[in-house]
Design a protein that fits this description.
Elements lengths: L9 H52 L4 E3 L2 E3 L7 E6 L5 E4 L3 H5 L11 H10 L13 E7 L2 E11 L10 E7 L1 H74 L9 H28 L7 E5 H18 L3 E6 L3 E5 H17 L6 E9 L2 E8 L6 H4 L11 H6 L6 H11 L3 E6 L5 E8 L8
Parallel strand pairs: 9-11
Antiparallel strand pairs: 1-2, 3-4, 3-7, 5-6, 6-7, 8-10, 11-12, 12-14, 13-14
Bound molecules: adenosine-5'-diphosphate (ADP).
Length: about 450
C-alpha cells in the first residue's frame, strides 16, 4: 500500500481546512475575549477610584462652600481635584488657582504666555463652561497647543448661605497619567496578543495536521482495501461467468461433457466463499466487532488434531514434519487459535518443497506462550517481510493464487494475535526458510477489540 504523509485526498483536505479554520477562530476568540476582559478590568481599576473621589468631594461641598473677603473657599482634601464655580446664569465666578497648571505646566514658572492668553484658552475650551448638569461623571478632552488633556468631571448644583451667588460647582481631575498607563497596558497586551495569535495559528496548523493524519491514513487504507477487495472478487467472478457462458453455448452436451467447466466454477465459488469470509473477519476486526470467546483451554488438546492433520498432509507431499507442544492451560479463543495455526501451517505447506522440514514448537516461557512455526522452504525476502501482514500482499501473486491464497491469511493471523494481546514476528530460518514466532501473554488481560 502506498504510504502517504501528505494530505492529498480532496475530502480529507476539505476536512483539514475546516479543522484549521475552526482551530484558528477558537484561538482568536480566546484572545479577543481575554483582551476585552482586560480592557474592562483596566477601565474599572483606573476610573472607579477617580469617580469615587469626585463624589466624596461633591458630598463634602454641596452646602459648605463659603466666601470670605471676596475669595471662595472649597473643602478639597485631594490636590488632584480642581474646582470651577458658576453663578445662576452659568457665568464663571472662580476657578482653582492652579487649574492652569494642568493645562500649561510651565505656568507660574517660566510661562511666556500672558494671563489674557491663558484666559482665552480657558474661554475657548469647554473645560470651564457649564455644559453638563446630569449629576453624572463626564469624560472630557481639551486640546491646547497640540496636546490633549483628559478629564473626569462632575458638575452639580450648590446652595450655600455663605456664598449665595454660587449656583453650580464643577469638580475635575485630569487623568492623562492614568490614560497613558492604560494605553501602554493595552499596547503591550496587543503586541503580546499578536505574537500569541501567530503562535496560536502555527499551533493550530500543527494540531490540525496531527488530528487529520491518522484519519487520512485510515481513509487511504480503507480505499486501498476496497479497491483490492473488488479486484480480488473480480477474477473468480469473471472465471465463473465465462465458464457458465461456455456451458450455455454447449446446449447439446451432457453434464459429463461440461463437468470440467462446472468443477472450475465450483472451485472459484469456494474461493469466493473463503474470500468473502476473510473480508468479513477483517472488517469485523477493524470495527472492533470480532466475536471473541475466551476460555481457559489446554493448548495441547486444542491444537493436537489440527497439527496431526497437517503432519499427514506434509508426509503425503514428501515433506518432513515435527512438532512439540507443552501441556498447559491458559486463556484464549479456541476457534481463533486453531484458525491461526491453520493459516501458518497452510503457508508452510504452500511455500515448501519435497524433503523440506516443517516444525511446530509451542512452549510456556515465563509469563508467555510461545508458538513457533518454522520451515525450510523458499523463505521471504527482507522487503516482503515488512509487508506480508498487509492485506492482499503476496510476494508471488501467481504462485499464491495457484495454491488458493488471497493474501489475507497473515493479516487475519495478525488480528487474531492482537485480539490475544500478543505479538507476531517473522524471521529467516537458517540456512533457509522462514520462522513465524508468536508471543501471547498467559495472564492475558484480554483486550476487547
Ligand atoms: P497467501 O494467501 O498468499 O498465503 P498470506 O497472507 O497467508 O497470503 O501470506 C502473504 C504472503 O507471505 C504470501 O503470499 C507469501 O509470499 C508470504 N509467506 C507467508 N508464509 C510464508 C512462508 N512460510 N514461506 C514463504 N513465504 C511465506
Amino acid at each position: 500500500m502506498k504510504k502517504n504523509n501528505k494530505i492529498d485526498n480532496k475530502v480529507i483536505r476539505r476536512q483539514y481546512i475546516k479543522l484549521l479554520v475552526s482551530n484558528m477562530i477558537a484561538f482568536v476568540l480566546v484572545y479577543v475575549i481575554l483582551g476585552l476582559s482586560l480592557v474592562a478590568i483596566v477601565n474599572r481599576f483606573f476610573y472607579s477610584d477617580l469617580e469615587n473621589e469626585l463624589f466624596i468631594c461633591k458630598n463634602e461641598n454641596e452646602h459648605t462652600i463659603s466666601k470670605i473677603q471676596g475669595e471662595y473657599r472649597v473643602n478639597v482634601d485631594n490636590a488632584r481635584i480642581k474646582v470651577v464655580l458658576f453663578d445662576a446664569d452659568g457665568q464663571r465666578l472662580a476657578y482653582s488657582k492652579d487649574l492652569l497648571n494642568y493645562i500649561i505646566p510651565d505656568y507660574g514658572f517660566n510661562s511666556n504666555l500672558a494671563p489674557e492668553v491663558i484666559l482665552t484658552y480657558l474661554d475657548n475650551s469647554d473645560l470651564c463652561k457649564l455644559l453638563d448638569l446630569s449629576n453624572d461623571v463626564k469624560h472630557e478632552k481639551v486640546k491646547l497647543e497640540n496636546t490633549v488633556y483628559n478629564f473626569v468631571s462632575l458638575t452639580f448644583e450648590i446652595s450655600s448661605k455663605t456664598a449665595p451667588d454660587v449656583k453650580y460647582c464643577k469638580l475635575m481631575i485630569m487623568n492623562n497619567g492614568e490614560i497613558s498607563i492604560q494605553n501602554n497596558i493595552i499596547k503591550i497586551f496587543l503586541i503580546i496578543s499578536a505574537a500569541l495569535i501567530v503562535l496560536g495559528m502555527i499551533a493550530s496548523i500543527i494540531l490540525s495536521k496531527r488530528t487529520i493524519k491518522p484519519i487520512a491514513v485510515n481513509m487511504e487504507k480503507q480505499t486501498q482495501f476496497v479497491s483490492d477487495a473488488s479486484h480480488e472478487l473480480r477474477t473468480p467472478l469473471s472465471i465463473v461467468q465465462s465458464k457458465l457462458e461456455n456451458i450455455l453455448t454447449k446446449t447439446d452436451s451432457t453434464v459429463f461433457d461440461v463437468s470440467e467447466d462446472i468443477a472450475i466454477s465450483l472451485k472459484e465459488v469456494s474461493r469466493l466463499n473463503k474470500l468473502t469470509n476473510d473480508l468479513l473477519a477483517l472488517t469485523r476486526a477493524d470495527n472492533g466487532a470480532s466475536v471473541v470467546n475466551f476460555g481457559n483451554y489446554n493448548i495441547l488438546e486444542t491444537l493436537n488434531d489440527t497439527i496431526t492433520i497437517f503432519k499427514e498432509m506434509a508426509n503425503i507431499e514428501g515433506k518432513k514434519f515435527e512438532f512439540q507442544i507443552e501441556d498447559f492451560n491458559f486463556s484464549f479463543d479456541k476457534e481463533k487459535i486453531i484458525q491461526l495455526m491453520i493459516i501458518l501451517l497452510d503457508n508452510a505447506l504452500k511455500y515448501t518443497k519435497e524433503k523440506d522440514l516443517i516444525s511446530v514448537l509451542i512452549i510456556k516461557e515465563g509469563i508467555d506462550c510461545i508458538i513457533k512455526v518454522s520451515d525450510t522452504g523458499i523463505g521471504i525476502s527482507s522487503e516482503a517481510k515488512k509487508r506480508i501482514f498487509e492485506r492482499f500482499y503476496r510476494e508471488d501473486k501467481a504462485r499464491s493464487r495457484a495454491t488458493g491464497g488471497n493474501g489475507l491469511g497473515l493479516a487475519i493471523g495478525k488480528s487474531i494475535v492482537h485480539l490475544h494481546n500478543g505479538k507476531i514476528m517473522v524471521n529467516d530460518n537458517k540456512p533457509k526458510g522462514t520462522i513465524f514466532e508468536i508471543v501471547i501473554p498467559i495472564k492475558n488481560k484480554i483486550i476487547k477489540k
